[in-house]
Design a protein that fits this description.
With about 110 residues, the chain is of the alpha+beta class. It has five helices and four strands; from the N terminus they run E-E-H-H-H-E-E-H-H. Strand 1 and strand 2 (about 15-20) form a beta hairpin.
Length: about 110
């Protein structure tokens, strides 16, 4: 047996941030495109856009600055607030796996047995 965990943050309306949603935001930031981020994560563009809208609605924070396509193409980038949210989530989750493994070892014995 091995312990597994999934971390997410909720508002009264539902999930605001999760590891997957943060990966989506990071992929958008790296690629400059919601479509490219969706492709990278293997999800439809519509789903990626829906998740961004959910996060914005549930957090009350504008996460993306977008440019409509045209000759030069459109694009998307994270707002300063979104980058801060991603940074804070990553800081919050850092080290949790070690804590969980330690607690597992104390409750069930060595994780590698």
């Amino acid at each position: 047996m091995k312990p597994r965990f999934n971390l997410w943050l909720e508002s009264d309306d539902g999930v605001v941030l999760s590891a997957w949603r943060v990966r989506l935001l990071e992929a958008i930031d790296e690629s400059g495109s919601i479509r490219a981020a969706a492709d990278q994560l293997g999800v439809p563009y519509r789903r990626a856009w829906q998740k961004v809208h959910e996060m914005e609605g549930r957090s009350g924070i504008r996460l993306l600055e977008t440019e409509v396509g045209g000759e030069g193409g459109g694009g998307a980038r994270l707002t300063k607030e979104a980058r801060d949210l991603v940074r804070r989530f990553r800081r919050f989750e850092a080290g949790l796996e070690e804590v969980i493994l330690d607690r597992y070892d104390k409750a069930f014995g060595a994780a590698n047995e």
